[in-house]
Design a protein that fits this description.
Blueprint lengths: L10 H19 L1 H13 L9 H12 L5 H16 L2 H16 L1
Helix pairs in contact: 1-4, 2-3
Length: 104
């Protein structure tokens, strides 16, 4: 995916990371609404949200990292993006995808 944007040093990839961080912070600002809606969904018995509802809501709340400032959350999210890009499994899938495309 990074190569499709021109590589890790390209302005397109930098813009992508900027948009990702903006979206993450916008979602964090609406965390209370999102958690309230999820709570309603758990109570409604929606598939995929069965089980320990408190644990589900706590897990989502943890992902928002509400303990961080916007700047800290941006750094946290950039680290997540880099970890994802450098993940071994993602590299394996990318290699398999390239081989499949080359075989066409």
């Amino acid at each position: 995916m990074v190569d499709g944007m021109g590589g890790p040093e390209s302005p397109h990839y930098e813009q992508f990371k900027k948009y990702c961080c903006q979206a993450y912070n916008w979602l964090r600002k609406s965390a209370n609404l999102i958690l309230a809606l999820l709570n309603l969904m758990v109570d409604a018995g929606i598939e995929g949200l069965e089980g320990d509802s408190a644990a589900i809501l706590l897990k989502v709340q943890e992902k928002f990292r509400l303990d961080l400032s916007d700047e800290q959350a941006e750094l946290f999210f950039l680290k997540l993006i880099e970890e994802s890009v450098n993940a071994v499994l993602a590299r394996v899938f990318e290699g398999v995808h390239r081989m499949a495309v080359a075989m066409r």
